[in-house]
């Protein structure tokens, strides 16, 4: 991860030696494999423009201004060190992480403290040892996985997102555009009338509302999914589908709240299921007069709904907020749904995952060829394999130099090629012709024919031998 | 809340799939179709990821005195052919090649989604096969057969490509135990209706339709499954006790040595009821409210 550290004026005490001994490469050896992450840190003083930006009133504005000035290539980080007395950062907060790829660090303590801060910051903003091991999850025994690994969608080449009801472009599209680097998305929506929950909520007298407890939530999804069928998870798409449902309860069951395990109603009134999607319950005000004419026009507050759905989308993609070290402040990502550095995190993990997948796929293909000797590999399958290997190698090379974007593209190509090679339909025909079946087929044919042939051959041999002996005898 | 999440994820799977195969055709093999359709109903109650392969020549067979129906019980209470049976591979499409293609995923690109097994490494798959079998093979449609070696190799390829988390293999044929002898991939549990050298017997002869309606092993397994509801805690050891020799005449067998978890801890609903793992959403992100003013019905 290329990290650039910039010192604002007055942030460094005068008695530090120059040049600052920051130019060391930090290599973190992660125990599973030997992934090296060089973090060269090049300290440099601020330029005049950056100074002006850092003089801004609040951290958020400074971040916005700095974004325009810096090198925003994928995968890199810029850290600005501001003086201890600076008013940019609120009290008690030592580090501020912005929406794009920069962070502000308050200079406090000596050089060593700053170095640990930087290390923490790099871990938060790019990757940690545990996230890399999670990406390599199919190599590890089960005990080491955290719950996060099971929750997120394995990297795939395309995804369908099905929110309902319509009118989502404003909110969902910006997030999907940002994520379009990772995968291709297509969005569909649908309205289902008379949908049934499948679980009966309990009526709670104290709050005069209906409650769904956590135990009953897992059983809600199936009946609903069966109805969703045709449109979203239909024959057209082969990619994994994420469903986001908004459930408006019927009047006899309103208002409906979801209860967490302590019995308190959940603030978001929503839950999600890993690799599937999320459901939110939206309670509609009962009409004032019972004689109001039906059907009732309902205005759904899309902002509230989309806030929850986008949060669920982030979780389903593995972008959860892990434990932050103390005194860190994260800027909320706003309308785009995720910050640039979060996208980088996703890309790091997915690149590693892709490369691992390519290596397991090609290894198993090779093992298959070893076991069954008489398979014929067609030329196009062979060329896919070569392409997969070349792309995987270039992805690894680019990872070590830190070019994240190119590394990710290369890893995606490698996965596509290796999947195409492994799942080629032509590989099936010649796989299943075991040796014992060959014997079983040919022996009944050849054995009866072979008996008279062998016997007459033996007879011929005997006769020629006798013939050879006789002339000598007669003489 | 983290330990709650740990508990939910005990089995490690997030979705369920089923592949149900009936390998016989012709009228006198009515019971195999009825077996498969009854298992289909019992799984479909809770799941929609099912690949069903049937010869499908029973309901509209000219010899069927009650056309458009397939019954599995002589009381004729339940028509298992019903209204919402989706047969994915029918008639002559039920071949060994297609079955292996479904399992390994080597499908021509033009195949529709309903005919594919789109499982991933977090899927628990149930595979149920029924028909006529022998020692080490299973007959497909009276014209070809699949051997236990091929089946074991197909499962190994599924494991290599991480197409399943755990796999439950149930087979109801004569000498069914021979079909799971050769498995060598991890996380497979297998049940069979009879041991090598024994025949599986049928049940429920019906004089009105003129054929046997079900096989014994499947009949008792389905009775057992009727009592499973989505929140049930019954485990696999109970399933192994189903259909003892006194009822089934043959000796059902099972194999669990390849399975990593103890069968005591494996819930029936891990395979037969699609109980999704859910988590409460506790975070939201804040959006700019200037973009509000967008209402919909």
Automatic annotation (TrEMBL), chain A:
Residue intervals passing through the bilayer: 439-461
Bilayer topology: Multi-pass membrane protein
Pathway in which the depicted protein is active: Glycolipid biosynthesis; glycosylphosphatidylinositol-anchor biosynthesis
Domain of life assignment: Eukaryota
Key words, A-Z: Endoplasmic reticulum, Glycoprotein, GPI-anchor biosynthesis, Membrane, Transmembrane, Transmembrane helix
UniProt KW Oxidoreductase keyword: no
Family under the similarity heading: Belongs to the PIGS family.
Name of the featured protein: GPI transamidase component PIG-S
Species in which this protein is naturally found: Cariama cristata (Red-legged seriema)
Automatic annotation (TrEMBL), chain B:
Coiled coil residues, start to end: none
Keyword Signal: yes
GO biological process: attachment of GPI anchor to protein; GPI anchor biosynthetic process; proteolysis
Highest taxon of the lineage: Eukaryota
Pathway assignment: Glycolipid biosynthesis; glycosylphosphatidylinositol-anchor biosynthesis
GO molecular function terms noted in the UniProt entry: GPI-anchor transamidase activity
Gene3D superfamilies: 3.40.50.1460
Family classification: Belongs to the peptidase C13 family.
Entries under PANTHER family matching the protein: GPI-ANCHOR TRANSAMIDASE
Name this protein carries in UniProt: GPI-anchor transamidase
Organism: Cariama cristata
